[in-house]
Amino acid sequence: ATPMSIIAGVGRAAEYGVLVRDADALQRASELDTLVFDKTGTLTEGKPQVVAVKTYGDINEAQALRLAAALEQGSSHPLAHAIIEKAGETQLPQISAFRTLRGLGVSGEAEDHALLLGNQALLNEQQIATTEIDPELEAQASKGATPVLLAVDGKVAALFAIRDPLRADSVAALERLHREGYRLVMLTGDNPITARAIAKEAGIDEVIAGVLPDGKAEAIKKLQAEGRKVAMVGDGINDAPALAQAEVGIAMGGGSDVAIETAAITLMRHSLVGVADALAISKATLRNMK
Ligand code: ADP
Ligand code: MG
């Protein structure tokens, strides 16, 4: 075991667009058995689009979009961009009492109406019944779309189905990792039905869904408590605690600065192919040392 060959391994990784923080990180990367992936922006393109709008009660599609887009102007979530884009360049109402409810959605008031926009957990938390729209929720989610609900004055007014497709090269990279014997896990704040539909497309073994931002590191700890050697792959600010908790944190290129600062390995490109390359190089390097 010579430090020289580790340094060579770090150099070799760099040629593949994989930046390894130190020799120790390469060693830990060679010992992993479980890879956990953030969904939005890591497995998927991170550019969600509204694919369907359903309205309930006496609101029409344009009115629902206008209210939802007005609220989302205060949010930087990828889902917010999708709704604003779908609404187009209309005059949006002024929002007061705006709030972000992390991992759930947003709320505020406009034109004397109380507005709530987010997932089913958010509406249920506010005692707003969603039973009427359950079939539609399930239908959209099982197609892999994320249902975002708009409530106006305590009643469900609209459902926006938002789709964020897998990155073109995700499936092949995941297949390669599977062949190499890793257990593949998806970790997401999205709802379980949507998450499972996308995991199936991607060839992911296990889904941990409905996780609030603060719960991501806790989920990694639980896997570690089962004796697994875990890498976390993510791109967002809210992935940073999980990246730090994992044996190896892997940040996607072009992701948030916080993710990159926290990660032991950073990919120069925003592609999962880099994960497969990084792990192959770590194994080859450590094998040469024995
Ligand atoms: P992830 O990054 O894993 O997608 P988040 O914790 O960011 O998860 O969000 C979890 C869920 O909360 C989203 O899938 C969505 O249903 C809801 N949500 C969060 N922020 C918003 C928002 N600005 N607008 C609508 N829904 C939101
Ligand atoms: Mg993400």
From TrEMBL:
It is found in: Cell membrane. Coiled coil: none annotated. It comes from the Bacteria. Belongs to the cation transport ATPase (P-type) (TC 3.A.3) family. Type IB subfamily. This is Copper-exporting P-type ATPase. It comes from Scandinavium hiltneri.
